């Protein structure tokens, strides 16, 4: 790949090698959050280095981990501080807006170039030294344009942060109300009947799954949705409508998998214990599930919230040395307090409201993130 820019990174940044001094906070580069105060990290990282053995980073500088720059391990500093001498510190010239550069460095094109200009025989030995960083070609607009672009991109990121805060708040509220309602600490208006303890076996019909031979092409790419734990993990919300792989009628007949009706709770009982979703179409599963088709006395949506609330109990009953697994016998014997169907539906309706809000927010976030990624990919393009 040959890439010619209108300048090189050495025209935009100079290497800062200023020795540290007492009184400055020690900062660390993280993959997700950029440059952060080391003492704020969940995983504490003590240093045996004296202040003067560190490097100084100033507001507007960019510090990067030479071994991980090709993976995006860098951060824009908003304060003066100390960083490890294993980092490179970049001092901006008058030709660059550091905020714009920080966005530019996140683009696939620049990450590719960071790797291409790094030295090392294997990935874990790759290092991007400042002299090689300075040789990397880039296309950048005038600084005034850079600043306008960076301001616009900051608005997009702030919108994502606001949505993240809303998601966290809604999830906290959902957990609070779930606990209050399912432990009967609060009752919805109009309900006072006693809840009865019921085993899963008495809630409906429990079905195990199965997998046909994977190398027989006649068993696959049919019309029968066939769920795996990966499909459940990919579900946004509580309902599953489709699966990555599908069985043919021959594939279904050649395995222990069974097609279950819509409204069945697909409950993972191997490895990712109690990850679950409700099928909206007829569907089969692999052997990593125990699926429950409720009788008319029990609401699938209520049981979804009930099982999710008691996830730790499912995990506690699972066993296995290689990976945890919950047997059909132990699954069916589990017992839970359950109200009458009318109260089940009322509770499910209340909790579904929170879930639906979270799903809507996540979809909104995904769309904004997609648009932001599109804008980022345009950075560095020739005018």
UniProtKB/TrEMBL annotation:
GO biological process: DNA restriction-modification system
Segments forming domain Type I restriction modification DNA specificity: 193-365
SUPFAM superfamilies for this protein: DNA methylase specificity domain (SSF116734)
Positions in coiled-coil regions: none
Keyword Endoplasmic reticulum in record: no
Presence of the UniProt keyword DNA-binding in the record: yes
Cross-referenced InterPro entries: Restrct_endonuc_typeI_TRD, Restrct_endonuc_typeI_TRD_sf, Type-I_RS_S_subunit
Keywords: DNA-binding, Restriction system
Pfam families: Methylase_S
Gene Ontology MF term list: DNA binding
Family statement drawn from the similarity comment of this UniProt entry: Belongs to the type-I restriction system S methylase family.
Listed name of the protein: Type I restriction modification DNA specificity domain-containing protein
Organism: Marilutibacter maris
Organism ancestry: Bacteria, Pseudomonadati, Pseudomonadota, Gammaproteobacteria, Lysobacterales
């Amino acid at each position: 790949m040959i890439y010619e820019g209108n300048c090189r990174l050495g025209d935009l940044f100079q290497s800062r090698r200023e020795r540290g001094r007492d009184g400055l906070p020690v900062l660390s580069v993280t993959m997700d959050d950029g440059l952060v105060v080391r003492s704020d990290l969940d995983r504490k990282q003590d240093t045996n280095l004296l202040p003067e053995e560190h490097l100084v980073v100033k507001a507007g500088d960019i510090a990067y981990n030479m071994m991980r720059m090709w993976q995006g391990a860098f951060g824009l500093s908003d304060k003066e501080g100390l960083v490890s001498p294993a980092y490179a510190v970049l001092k901006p010239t008058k030709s660059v807006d550091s905020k714009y550069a920080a966005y530019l460095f996140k683009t696939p094109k620049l990450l590719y170039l960071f790797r291409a200009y790094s030295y090392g025989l294997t990935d874990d030995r790759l290092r991007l030294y400042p002299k090689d960083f300075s040789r990397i070609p880039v296309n950048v607009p005038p600084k005034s344009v850079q600043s306008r672009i960076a301001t616009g991109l900051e608005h997009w990121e702030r919108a994502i942060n606001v949505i993240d805060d809303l998601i966290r708040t809604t999830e906290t509220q959902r957990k609070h109300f779930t606990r209050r309602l399912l432990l009967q600490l609060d009752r919805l208006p109009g309900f006072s009947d006693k809840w009865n303890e019921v085993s899963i076996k008495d809630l409906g019909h429990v079905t195990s799954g199965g997998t046909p031979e994977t190398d027989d092409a006649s068993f696959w790419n049919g019309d029968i949705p066939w769920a795996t734990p990966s499909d459940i993990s990919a579900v946004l919300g509580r309902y599953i409508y489709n699966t990555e792989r599908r069985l043919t009628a021959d594939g279904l007949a050649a395995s222990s998998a069974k097609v279950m009706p819509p409204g069945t709770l697909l409950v993972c009982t191997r490895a990712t214990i109690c990850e679950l979703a409700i099928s909206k179409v007829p569907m089969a599963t692999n052997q990593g599930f125990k699926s429950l088709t409720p009788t008319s006395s029990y609401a699938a949506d209520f049981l979804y919230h009930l099982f999710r609330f008691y996830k730790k109990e499912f995990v506690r009953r699972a066993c296995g040395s290689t990976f945890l697994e919950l047997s059909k016998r132990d699954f069916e014997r589990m017992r839970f307090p359950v109200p009458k169907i009318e109260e089940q539906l009322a509770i499910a309706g209340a909790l579904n409201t929170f879930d639906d809000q979270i799903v809507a927010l996540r979809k909104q976030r995904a769309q904004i993130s997609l648009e932001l990624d599109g804008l980022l990919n345009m950075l560095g393009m020739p005018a």
